[in-house]
Amino acid sequence: MAWRCSGPTNEALIENLTRNNLITQPRVQRAMLLVDRAHYSPSAPYEDSPQPLGHRATISAPHMHAAACEALLPFLHPGARVLDIGSGSGYLTHVLAELVRPGGRVVGVEHIEALVEMGVRNSGKSVEGRELVEGGGMRFVRGDGRLGWEGEGPYDAIHVGAAAKGFHQALIDQLRAPGRLFMPVEEGHMQHIYVIDKKEDGTVTRTKEMCVRYVPLTDAPTE
Ligand code: SAH
């Protein structure tokens, strides 16, 4: 899949992801076209593969970012509140912020200070990113994402960018009803994406999706 979707430019990458049905929604396509991965990936930005960020973190592969946006899309309306846990490079935080414009707010939660700063710095490389940060449509905070980010909830959508050891109740509690959580969860030696829906009446359902490989959602390293 990866070799078929890579391209020489951001436009070519997004076009190839669309041609291979990894992006099916025009809104996702538009948002991913608006955010140049070269502002966020320190190496090979248009390859459909994860790239190292330092601090044992990786920017996820474009097809995983696309899958997350496609899954969360019904909850990404103008004005929506969104949490991006393990924001790393800040790439997905920015794409999500484009998807909830105008009036939406996305909080990127990251537990390594240098990566919080990386997210802010990367966002500053584009006019759109700067506008979103200055206007409050996107912010990066330091915190343990397993606890969510209480101050700005409830959230219409929550994305977790690192593999969790379980279904953290704080994240489910901070979801709006209705709302949707997209997260990789460790299961033995495997990891699977789970899509967790909180319905309007508060009932919660879990759907197990594809097998994935993410960095773990952990305690903050002692530096
Ligand atoms: N979505 C990011 C993924 C970065 S990799 C991107 O595509 O750029 C996963 C990130 O989760 C790393 O940056 C790591 O530092 C962060 N992380 C791991 N455990 C965490 C925790 N408990 N709280 C917040 N961030 C965490």
Automatic annotation (TrEMBL):
Its EC number is 2.1.1.77. The keyword S-adenosyl-L-methionine applies. One of its GO terms (biological process) is methylation. It is found in: Cytoplasm. SUPFAM superfamilies: S-adenosyl-L-methionine-dependent methyltransferases (SSF53335). Keywords: Cytoplasm, Methyltransferase, S-adenosyl-L-methionine, Transferase. This is Protein-L-isoaspartate O-methyltransferase. It comes from the Eukaryota. One of its GO terms (molecular function) is protein-L-isoaspartate (D-aspartate) O-methyltransferase activity. PANTHER family: PROTEIN-L-ISOASPARTATE O-METHYLTRANSFERASE, PROTEIN-L-ISOASPARTATE(D-ASPARTATE) O-METHYLTRANSFERASE. It catalyses: [protein]-L-isoaspartate + S-adenosyl-L-methionine = [protein]-L-isoaspartate alpha-methyl ester + S-adenosyl-L-homocysteine. Belongs to the methyltransferase superfamily. L-isoaspartyl/D-aspartyl protein methyltransferase family. It is an enzyme of class 2 (transferase).
